[in-house]
Design brief:
about 200 residues; alpha+beta; seven-stranded mixed beta sheet
Length: about 200
């Protein structure tokens, strides 16, 4: 290990130092703490929603408007234990969930789904599958999302093999009091998907 001191840090010995997680097949920035003190500080920051998280998501269809806020509680699906439902249709207890979004780029409208929209999405809460469930509830599932998109809404531009969701940016105050902004460039497969869409314009 490059940082052997992380052994024993955190709550999961198989993932030492890992402060938070991303959905399977979601790429982007992850924070790993090197000390127990840093882990506790950062874990508390995530729980208090004082870490600003910005994702890049490609949704199927042309979103109405240029920005907005999705304020829909999220709960479990009655049909699939893996899936979450935003708004009506959830079973059991639901939890508050709020996501801000802003259009970054639009791609050619056309059949069958009416194009694609690249958005910056900022979850103000930290629910499981929050961004995926929220945009699905609006009728704009993420591109290539096998769990949430069905029928004509399931589309994969540029031979994409996973859902288009990337944890692009994290902004937070470090344990030393410094304001940090961490960014991760889009990986090659997501960038290829955008290049393919731009070629159609």
């Amino acid at each position: 290990l490059k940082y052997p001191e992380i052994a024993g840090v955190g709550e999961d010995p198989l993932r030492p130092g890992l402060v938070h997680r991303l959905d399977r097949d979601t790429s982007g920035v992850l924070i790993i703490a090197r000390t127990t003190q840093a882990f506790s500080f950062l874990k508390s920051a995530f729980q208090a929603h004082s870490v600003k998280k910005t994702y890049l998501a490609l949704v199927v269809g042309s979103l109405k408007g240029e920005s907005g806020t999705i304020d829909l509680p999220i709960g479990r699906s009655s049909k699939s234990p893996m899936r979450r439902i935003a708004g009506k249709g959830a079973v059991g207890k639901t939890r508050e969930a709020v996501t801000r979004w802003r259009v970054r780029e639009r791609f050619a409208d056309g059949p069958p789904a009416g194009g694609f929209t690249l958005v910056e999405a900022e979850p103000l809460t930290g629910r499981t599958h929050q961004i995926r469930a929220h945009f699905t509830a609006l009728g704009y599932p993420l591109a290539c999302d096998k769990l949430y998109a069905g029928g004509e809404r399931y589309q994969c531009p540029g031979e994409l093999a996973r859902h288009f969701l990337h944890a692009w940016k994290l902004e937070f105050v470090s344990p030393s009091g410094a304001n940090l902004r961490l960014e991760a460039d889009l990986p090659e497969d997501l960038e290829r998907a955008l290049v393919a869409l731009r070629a159609q314009i």
